[in-house]
Design a protein that fits this description.
Helix content is 36%, strand content 12%. It has helices at residues 10-23, 59-75, 93-103, 138-145, 162-168, 190-197, 213-231, 284-287, 291-309, 316-331; strands spanning 45-50, 79-83, 112-117, 120-122, 127-129, 136-137, 152-156, 173-177, 240-242, 255-256, 259-260. The longest helix has 19 residues, at 213-231. The protein is globular and about 60 Å long.
Length: 343
């Protein structure tokens, strides 16, 4: 999209800004050649941690989930590591998980996806993922993740997982849990539906050719709710997502499409925009972008989202002036047609 000449006409500027806002994400930033191989710190990593099955019926389900994560990670050319799928010598799964995180780059543009699969427990004070040998608690995982400053997603698909959201929430993090309370301790089906959603074209709610973390969350949540409705059961799992760092979480019924339509209390920013930028299987156009260019684009789009949350509190002129100040740099990332003005 080209940049229109700026002639000091406020109406034209507002129209330009709104046009860019509406088109954001439909065109790829200028980068005609395929992106070069990313350094290790810019490569996506997926760590799947599977806990103890507890009974024979759950073993195959958890194993299938890990296999699906491995397959989709391979398709994405992401580094994949499975912990707990089989016994690894004398080292406990708890320690293998810790060691895997210690070995990961703490900075960089590459996203780190951590998937917790299995059963969870909550004793009223501490939530844990049940592993072979020592369990891992939400408090421990929060400590292990403190050194990380790269984009991070934790998808806790276990029962009683909600306390993990409160403990792990933070800047540049997306935290998803299968439950809204530590007291929801029955087996959670959400994880099964979640990994299926990542490869299901019907999960692409905004029809941009790829499935984001937010879209997978919404699709899996819908399937989870449909299961309990169809079976005539009382729902014992209610998924939450947090990506604004407030540790509160947002339920799926707050969203229409990929936009949250309900407002957070006290004017806090809503969840969702950051999760929409986590994509494990990018489209062909996205694959052409370098991690640096993609990070620049994502940062500007998040700024647009935050400004949009403040629109009701700003004068119209002020709002559009701020919007244009964000969208002009965003437009400069896009191809410029011959004869366009580039200021």
């Amino acid at each position: 999209m080209g940049i229109a000449p700026q002639e000091g006409n406020a109406v034209k500027s507002w129209t330009f800004a709104l046009t860019l806002l509406a088109a954001s994400g439909l065109a790829a930033p200028a980068d005609p050649s395929p992106a070069p191989a990313a350094p290790a710190s810019d490569r996506t990593t997926v760590i799947a941690v599977v806990g103890i099955a507890g009974s024979e019926e759950y073993g195959p389900i958890f194993s299938d989930e890990v296999d699906r994560w491995e397959k989709i990670s391979a398709q994405a050319d992401a580094k994949f590591l499975a912990i707990g799928r089989k016994a690894e010598g004398t080292t406990s799964d708890h320690d293998l998980f810790k060691q895997a995180l210690e070995a990961e780059p703490k900075d960089g543009l590459g996203k780190l996806w951590i998937v917790l699969i299995g059963h969870g427990t909550f004793d009223g004070k501490e939530a844990k993922l049940n592993l072979r040998g020592p369990d891992v608690s939400a408090t421990e995982l929060a400590l292990w993740l403190q050194p990380f400053h790269r984009p991070l997603a934790v998808i806790d698909t276990t029962s009683a997982s909600a306390p993990f959201l409160t403990k792990l929430s933070g800047t540049d993090r997306v935290i998803i849990t299968a439950t809204r309370s530590g007291d929801e301790q029955n087996y959670a089906r959400f994880g099964q539906y979640f990994v299926e959603a990542l490869a299901d074209p019907q999960s692409d709610l905004d029809k941009d050719g790829e499935i984001s973390l937010l879209e997978a969350f919404l699709s899996a949540s819908a399937r989870t709710a449909e299961f309990y409705k169809t079976e005539g059961r009382l729902a014992t799992e209610h998924p939450l997502i947090d990506d604004n760092g407030d540790g509160l979480g947002t339920p799926p019924d707050w969203f229409e499409g990929v936009r949250a339509v309900k407002k957070a209390r006290d004017g806090a920013s809503v969840d969702g925009p950051l999760a929409q930028q986590f994509v494990l299987l990018p489209s062909a156009e996205e694959q052409k972008l370098s991690p640096t260019l993609r990070a620049q684009r994502d940062k500007l789009e998040l700024a647009v989202s935050r400004l949009r949350d403040q629109k009701a509190t700003l004068a119209e002129d002020d709002y559009y002036a701020r919007l244009e100040a964000i969208l002009l740099p965003l437009a400069k990332l896009y191809p410029q047609p011959a004869g366009s003005v580039d200021k």
